[in-house]
Amino acid sequence: MAGTAAWALEMDLRGATDRVTWCAWSPAGPRLALASADRTVRVWDVSIGCEVVKLEGHGGAVRSCAWNPDGTRLASASDDKTVRVWDVNSGRDGQTGCRVVAMLEGHDEGVTSCAWSPDGARLAFASRDETVRVWDANTRSEVAKLEAALHQRAERTVNDCAWSPDGMRIASSVADGTVRVWDVGTCREVAKLLAQVNCCAW
Q: What pTM was computed for the model?
């Protein structure tokens, strides 16, 4: 068709033994993190087409992963109700590392999504228990709990969460057919949009 761009497959990344659930580009270089239902996160250097790090330890499917703003930490959210924060150094100054520097707990159900604040100081994660929790990345303590009153159990899942560019608000997409916007400082819901979506982004 005239005027349409031709797309060509540049690379096919394989290795996961179950479906890939999420992918995230590093802001610090040509690295792509792939979360999988096989309980792993694999980091690829796409400049050479090679898997450079395999992160293991979750007790359930990994649903999401997110790099912090400087690309030194990778968070992973899992059905095992935890978020793990990894120090991923492979390909930097000849070092190889995949150390867990924090394991964040508190949810009653599996964690579906995780997102770093724009300044990298806080980490938000959404869950099937109808909440979004915000943790201080330095103290590793919960600083906010965003909870909507959802009456039907089938509608409790918060599918995704995303920070506003100024780090003041969080949007969350919920299985009840809404997107809710929260003031993180007050933990108050400031807007509710009717939209049946899985993901949200500012």
A: 0.89
